[in-house]
Amino acid sequence: MGMRYTADDFDGDSRVAPDEALRRLAEGNRIYMEALDHKRDLSPARIRELFENGQRPFATIITCADSRVVPEHAFMAGLGELFVVRVAGNVVGPVEAASAVYACAHLHTRLLLVLGHTHCGAIKAAIDGEAGAVAPVTERVAAAIAGEDDPYRASVLNTEAAIAELRAVPELAALEQAGDLRIAGAIYHTHCGVVDFL
Ligand SMILES: [Zn+2]
């Protein structure tokens, strides 16, 4: 079962290519769906190894804070493998963009994946016009989905809007144009756990 990575996997150029990162994520989701192996190395030895060697995540993921959408589970990834930014509605504002820049420009992950999901509470709140304290999220989502109420289409539109926000960040755009980064989207189906890569 090939989902364990150690420091030995990072000899030489440690940066995992976008195609390989996507392949790992798709394979992880397949294992998640088939419940082939839900064991993870959370041992003190692994924690110490990551502390001593530093983190080398192979992908950066921006996703919703929804408790049912857990990238490390959905992609069967272990400690140190994914740099995850979680925020309601997987919206991208200045703080999320800055987090992505840190991961892509400094940790050198070469895949930046926005993982939206169906039946998202933030999208429902936006459709329902909720404002006040949740407005920083719902206003971004409302602008992204423009009235779409189909849960899958709305999550795709919201994900695409987040990708557009990321591409508007000069540091990320430069990395992508240089071929050092791919910015991509995917949708997690909340009712079954399947991830569709867009
Ligand atoms: Zn959500």
Automatic annotation (TrEMBL):
* Keyword Lyase recorded: yes
E.C. number(s) listed in UniProt: 4.2.1.1
Which metal ions or organic cofactors does this protein require, according to UniProt? Zn(2+)
EC category name: lyase
Quickly give the catalysed reaction: hydrogencarbonate + H(+) = CO2 + H2O
A Pfam short name? Pro_CA
Judging by the UniProt lineage, the source's domain of life is Bacteria
What's in the keyword line of the UniProt record? Lyase, Metal-binding, Zinc
SUPFAM superfamilies named in the record: beta-carbonic anhydrase, cab
- Name the family the entry cites: Belongs to the beta-class carbonic anhydrase family.
Q: What does this protein do?
A: Catalyzes the reversible hydration of carbon dioxide to form bicarbonate.
Please give the name of this protein: carbonic anhydrase
